[in-house]
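Blinded run. Sample ID left blank on purpose so nobody reads anything into the name before looking at the predicted structure. Input follows.
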Amino acid sequence: MAASVCRVGGVVGRAFARTRGPALLSLRRGQASVTYAQSLLGAPETQLTALDNGLRIASEDTGHATCTVGLWIGVGSRYESEKNNGAGFFLEHLAFKGTKKHPQSALEQAVESMGAHLSAYTSREHTAYYMKTLAKDLPKALELLSEVVQSAALSEAEIEQQRGVILKELDEVEGSLQDVCLDLLHATAYQGTPLAQSVLGPSQNARTLTRQDLVDYINSHYKAPRMVLAAAGGVNHDELVGLAKQHFSGLSFEYQDDAVPVLSPCRFTGSEIRMRDDAMPLAHIAIAVEGAGAANPDIVPLMVANSIIGSYDITFGGGKHLSSRLARLAAEINLCHSYQAFHSTYSDTGLMGIYFVTDKHKIEDTMHWAQNAWMNLCTTVTESDVARAKNALKASLVGQLNGTTLICDDIGRHILNYGRRIPLAEWDARIEAVTPKILRDVCSKYIYDKCPAVAAVGPVEQLPDYNRMRSAMYWLRF
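Blinded prediction complete.
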């Protein structure tokens, strides 16, 4: 059977859910000749409606023959405890294993008969179930999504079978050193808080979670006010609202004993964690400071700052002609195999950092120049640096939403994070408003003389002592 029902909770899916910043609308097919300014004015409007139970419905009619529709839920590993960490990921595995009305084979056949694609992913703060299908099949797609979210079978036999699958996946993830390094970075940066927990959870929980644990998780978090029904493509908003009333008006909005889950504040701790293994060929290292939350206005200058630092891979052409100073150094003096600037944003905090892969003899040099790039952002960034980074950021944001699935995901996350879909023109204006002085001030606020969190995996003997890395977070100049 074709792979029409799948999850995106693996390496690619988690990166998909974790790394993207606010993404913007791409040009419609056949409109490549319009100017950038025209594309800002011509972006379709996102319509938003709320049902009586608190479920929000948001859609954007792009005129495509296909559409993507899904439920975005404000719940993830940050809402889990040590005891049930991994419950959301476990539910993602069970989502398409049958409902009370459709056994697994019937569910797969229903999806296949439409030529659709049913997927899900879980991140630290969000869970999504969505389907890409022909626009004419929207009613059937919503019916199936409604069953998957509200009436999952959760049979004991399937739960036991999925334990083994999850344990194998946990073993496979250990081979993705970027995922391992970034999970360790969260573990040390947010130690003692729920954000330190991984999305997958520990193997012990995969062995011990019961059906009742999963049912309690659904009953505690799958509430209408924390859900967004998002759609993009050939979608009529009024039709979508009517279908939502039909299939989702019964979603509960009340909590047992009025025990509404509240996110506990997350405390950032400057610290380090090292997993030394000299048998590994390359060192994987991430250094980060506490960044801005998703709704913080400082997020835009920090995005421009990361655009200045950019990314590099040894396979890139360009060498000394690359626009980023750090990338030019990496190419000219063989500094590292790859690096990328990242900003993982959450509702009230974030991690702004640089992840790099390098030879064990180049760790100290790479760390020095990475921190030097940060100091340049705080002190000597120029008008030309900012202008280039703003253009690159605009191009990146516009190009990220190429298709209904990415647009739909952007809508769902925006409604959860901001309560509205931020339009293309507003992002453009906010990026354009960033000046070198603003960027220096914001970077000084988050980076200069701040304690970093560091995670290192592999042959990391040459990684400097933490106190040395901390002392490189400021410059002494006379």
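Unblinding after everyone has recorded impressions. The CA atoms of residues 313 and 338 lie 4 Å apart.
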